[in-house]
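Let us practice reading a record.
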Amino acid sequence: MRRRVFLAVISAVIVTPFFFSGCAEDPYIPQPAVDEYVFRVPSNFPQPVYNFANNTVSEAGFKLGRKLFYDPILSRDNSTSCASCHQQASAFAHTEHRFSHGINDQLGNRNAPPVYNMAWLPYFMWDGGINHIESQPSGPITNPIEMDESLGNVIAKLSATPAYRAMFTDAFGDDTITTQRMFRAMAQFMGMMVSANSRYDKYMRGETGGEMNAQELSGLSLFRQKCASCHTEPLFSDYAFRNNGLAADPTINDSGRTHITQNPADMYKFKTPSLRNIELTTPYMHDGRFITLDQALNHYTSGVVAGPTLDPLLADGIPMTAQEKADIITFLKTLTDISFTIDHRFSEHAVSHEH
């Protein structure tokens, strides 16, 4: 039977227990969601950039993508997986690591961004060097200081693994393993990683659990006045490339977007990151230079460095009092989506249990 995926608006999932003798569900143990492998667009979100009609989500495809995400077989020495730098408890960022370690304990020069709401991204990587979710894994896989493997070798290793041949058969109908199939399975997994159940989201949708106190509401108002031009709701990014006035780090010498476009006008511009789950994803900025949210906001009040490509919105910095900063940070913490960080569908524990 042809598998289908239906785009639907998120609604409350009602789990009806059946209290037959000897088989009652324990109400204190969370029950699986209905249709947990169906992609849904949250009601307070726009339509995604990625078109799942061309890569229908299936349970088999999703689980194959998850297996690949957690498997170090994608790296040259079988030591490093995608999950090595993108860990669920920190919204699939690498918390407290300024730069993640690749193979041979090598360090890159950019902070590993979190992985969520990928279906809405028009560009990937800090410099936008990849513009399609199905191509995104090729970057870290082939990067010499991350996973340092060729796609040909990855396909050869997967093809030599009976368990993978069986999983590709389940997902695609036969055991032919190609880069397109591998990347489409990973796109199913990563595309389903939707984080849209924070207290802010419940507030915007008028749901129970979305109540905000006076300081949080003040922070939301201030955020909309001072931050939302770049960190646009509901995704909390406009995904544009901007120079936000960070002093260039001479030990890294990272030119940003210019590295891709070769255009001097893009010097030191980086993609605006989403602020969702920001409480969990320290350190901050493309090079992880700030450890706390206070430090990040202090940069905008007093640390912006002028330059020819500085974003015009930051020409005078962003004036904020100490109380305004405190209110904004209090609001930012309402963007934390704990349900996403414990969702069993995305966990390595689920992989170990199923294989």
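A brief commentary: The first helix runs from residue 59 to 70.
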